[in-house]
Amino acid sequence: MNKYVKIWIIVSILLVVAVISDYLATQSFPWPQTSIFEPRQFPVDGSTMVTRYYSYAGDLELFYKFKTILSSINATILVFLCATYVDMYRKIKSEFTIGLILFSLTLLLYALTSNPLLQWLFGYQAFGLGPFAMLPDMFTSLALAVLMYLTMK
After folding, report:
1. Dihedral sign computed on CA atoms, order 141, 147, 148, 150
2. What is the pLDDT of residues 22-80, one digit of tens each?
3. I want to staple 37 with a disulfide (CB 3.0 to 4.6 A). Which of 52, 60, 87, 112 is the partner?
4. Residue 39: is the preceding peptide bond cis (ω within 30°)?
């Protein structure tokens, strides 16, 4: 397959993943019975749980939406990288490619577990981190873009 066709297919798939993860991040589902980014209660003084709900609408709706999209894109890139490294290992049987496979699998686990959609499915909800919610994923995306560029070269 032509190198440029492969790159366009990967970019197209990444765009589809971004749109799907954006859609999933903004929808409410029947299980659990809450929206992924709804306001929740938290202790005020550390000893008692207050039943008032505090909304972090600007924080959650923007930063966690970007975090969801970035971690989904990262996971998709890592699946492509891992498949490429497995194919490379079949051809050259190098120990270095085994290291690259393990490296990409480890980063894939990071991308999956840091995705707010997965955390929400297990009943956890994050809030209050502001831009620090998405900065690690943004840096990971940059590193993966460089790694993908070098792999395709």
Report:
1. positive
2. 888 777 554 444 555 555 454 455 555 544 444 445 555 677 778 888 889 989 999 99
3. 60
4. no
